[in-house]
Amino acid sequence: MTEACSAPLRLLAAEAVAREAGAFMRRRFVDASFEVGFKGPQDYLTEVDGETEELISTRLCKAFPNDGFIGEETAAREGRGEAVWVVDPIDGTSNFARRNPHFCVSIACLIGGWLEVGVIYDPMRDELFSGFRGGGARLNGEGIRPSKVTSLANSAIEVGWNARAGADRYLDILRRVADEGAAPSRTGSGALAIAYVAAGRSDGYVEHHIKAWDCLAGVLLVREAGGYVSDFLAGEGLLKGNPLIACAPGLKDALIAAVAMEGIVL
To answer: Do residue 66 and residue 118 come from a single domain?
Structure first.
């Protein structure tokens, strides 16, 4: 079996690991026995982030010892094969730290530079979004599709925030989205927001700059569900991040024109 043909096997492993990691972080969230710190302004960090990433890394390394690993909290590990895992142990750490039950595990796998597997698990709702390239996208085993909306005036668009882009650029996107009649929002987890686009719960997601571990699993899900997503992996997206637009297919042209983001590769 070639590595590219092993995507379904890696999907099964990622689903199992995501559920195990999710159960662990749910226990820690409920007992609230963790310390909260900051990596920068509004950039929360808890000890549970590192513990969860260690669990995920250990399980995946044991199952696929030749694979590389890129995690939000640890240095990248080079593999001997073509596959690399990209992981955010807790996407939505600020919510986790504030006792807001809206966060998830995000696990993606690239093989030979192709995005092959994406898994996002919300442990508080027990919702597992998953898929592999060419195999469709699912929520708890059932197929999902993006919304059928074709007008921004009838849409709900989540706008991602990060300190790297700055307040002015964030507020500019909010204004542009609202000026088109869309309802803008922010929930604090980019991974879940993108998964919601794939499932038709939200109509679009935009962010000036997002990291690979926050979005790659969601990018796979939106593509496999039949939605539109910009080329996040263009240039140095994997290691340095990129702008991102993900949306229902009927909103593609209107949303791209509305937000007019610099540096995005369509």
So the answer is: yes
Considering the domain architecture, whether residues 184 and 127 belong to the same structural domain is answered as no
Report the residue count for the chain. 266
CATH number at residue 156: 3.40.190.80
Tell me the pLDDT tens digit for each residue of 28-48: 999 988 888 887 777 678 999
Rg of the chain over Cα atoms, rounded to whole angstroms, equals 17
Joined together, the tokens standing for residue 57 give 């890394």
Residues 139, 156, single domain; the answer is no
Cα–Cα distances (Å) from 148 to 97, 193, 227, in that order, read 35, 17, 10
CB atoms within 10 A of CB 112: 12
> How many CA atoms are closer than 13 Å to the CA of 168, on its beta-carbon side?
0
pTM of the model: 0.95
**pLDDT under 70 in the chain at which residues?**
1-5, 43, 75
Q: Residue 142 has which token pair? A: 């059932």
